[in-house]
Amino acid sequence: MKVAVIDINGKKTGRSVELSDAIFAIEPNDHAIYLDVKQHLANKRQGTSKAKERADIKGSTRKIKKQKGTGTARAGSIKSPIFRGGGRAFGPRPRNYSFKLNKGLKKLARQSALSLMAKEDNILVLEKFDFDAPKTKDFINILKALDLENKKSLFVLEESNINVYLSSRNLKSTRVVNSSQLNTYGVLNANKVLLSEECLEEIESNFSK
Fold first, then answer.
1. Mean pLDDT over all residues of the chain?
2. Residue 94's pLDDT band (cuts 50, 70, 90)
3. Displacement of CA 43 from its chain's centroid (Å)
4. Are 203 and 170 in contact (CB under 8 A)?
5. Long-range pairs of 164-168 with CB within 8 A, sequence gap ≥ 24
């Protein structure tokens, strides 16, 4: 599929690029997308929550009342979860939420995400640009020119560009990554994905079968 190359002012350059059908025009696999997004979000979880259970509570271990004849339920410890100040029953413990996915499935998920965005005309190809110095105002002007000021956008560059990255860092709805950092969640979480002309070859190399 052919896509026109535009500049940072949102105007067509008169050139176009051919996007690989093996990456940008496949039948999306919803289950692969689900698994890849689930893994991405699971890996971001710290898993450090911890509640004190009855073994962690300080207190006497004596039996607090006699077994029979009180008219109430039996009770053997002041640290029981049914008493105020007692330990929590089945509370959270530190754990690792991450899980493994095969490389082939992750590649299929990324191909599916890019194909979905391409099908909805939400992929743009930008010619190469750079800033002389980090300046958020200059990046905001680019977003205005591309009609992305109030939309989520993902800029994918060929390699890390410190000036472009620092210029966008304070903008909550915009992310700048290089092609090796491209992932399913990032693609689907954006309204528009903007690929630099130079990164297309590396994307095709990384995601092609």
1. 92
2. very high
3. 10
4. no
5. 164/129, 164/130, 164/131, 164/139, 166/134, 167/131, 167/134, 167/135, 167/136, 167/138, 167/139, 168/136, 168/139
- The residues pairing with 194 across neighbouring beta strands, listed in sequence order, are 124, 155
Predicted pLDDT at 209: 61
Please give the distance of CA 110 from its chain centroid, rounded to a whole number: 12
Q: Are 125 and 6 in contact (CB under 8 A)?
A: yes
Whole-model pTM over 0.85: no
- Any idea of the CA torsion for 35, 176, 195, 8, to the nearest 10 degrees? 150
**Cα separation of 119 and 116, whole Å?**
5
Question: What tokens were used for 143?
Answer: 């977003």
Record: fold of 2-45+98-207: Ribosomal Protein L4; Chain: A; (3.40.1370)
The b/e string for 6-23 (b: 16+ C-beta within 10 A; e otherwise) is bebeeeeeeeeeebbeeb
Q: What residues does each domain of the chain span?
A: 2-45+98-207, 48-96
